[in-house]
Description:
alpha+beta, four-stranded antiparallel beta sheet, disordered C terminus, 352 residues, Serine Threonine Protein Phosphatase 5, Tetratricopeptide repeat, Alpha-Beta Plaits, 2 domains
Amino acid sequence: MRAGPRTPGDGITLHTKVAANGLAMKRWLGKAETALGNHSDRLNAINIFPVADGDTGTNLYLTVRAAARSLVLSGDEPAPVDVGAILATAGQAAMEAARGNSGTLFSVFLCAAAEPLAGHTRLTSTLLAAALNRAQIRAWSALSEPVPGTMLSVMEAAARAAAAVDAGQNGDDSNHALGLALDAAVEGALAAVIHTEDQLDALHSAHVVDAGGVGMLLILDCLRSAVMGQELQSELLDGLHGYDVSDPHIHTSMPDDDGVEVMCTISLSPLNAATLRQRLDEIGESVIMSQVGGGPDDEGSYRWRVHVHVPDPDPAVEIIRSLGEPSQISISELALPRDPGADAVNTSGHER
């Protein structure tokens, strides 16, 4: 049995390496790309909700990779200093390349987190709390039917924990206060991950925690690591049900899920966007719609990233095309080949 969450601040040792600037944000996403690549196989293995298609680890990895690589500078290009602008760039890239429910929700999270940070060159406890809160609210609202016990709950728990610590800091903008808030966010996320098993019947029956929630926990620990100049917490995932490398690929024993996942990017007026969400809700599940980029174009339309699970792609694509001209349309089967190694980015399941 794993130990319970630590008290926020336990184990924090401040170093001269602390850097809460734009370069730290770049390091964060680079670390997250590596961590998710190393853990993708185990995340895939326990991916049974909302469908047991064994691809959450792969989807998160590919989405975060797009975000991280959008920040690679070329030549003598000066490094940007606006923390919000950096994350907005990364969020835009993630949204354009988002894969699956988990990748799409992370993209929404990243784009929203960037907003309170715009114009700032350094992350503080207060800004962290604001960013995490904006991000979790936006992620919950992106889904037509959000479900507790998923990565949404993990995002919310992290935001609440960081806000609670920040509220007790009386506006302290020091690195120490930021460290306390980051540690609390990770611990809140960990507690939420453990709780997912009791929130969803499918997870409870399989005796596993939510794959997307674990992925989000890893991403948040990478943020803490990048900002505080510390190593990732190797013991963080110890004892999580279903996460031991000796466990089988749990998703392989689940019934095949019929249908397909349809994703695209499309420019729509607010009215047409609401219409599209309603009509996709009528024929499918896991409907996620989120704006891509900033304000409207000259015709008052906004760009949207659309995600839906449907029995047959044709009606969904027809509905989408009736309201606009979609780009980046992708259609993938939900019932993937049940080969445990088919989608693995690597098979170690541990940090290197």
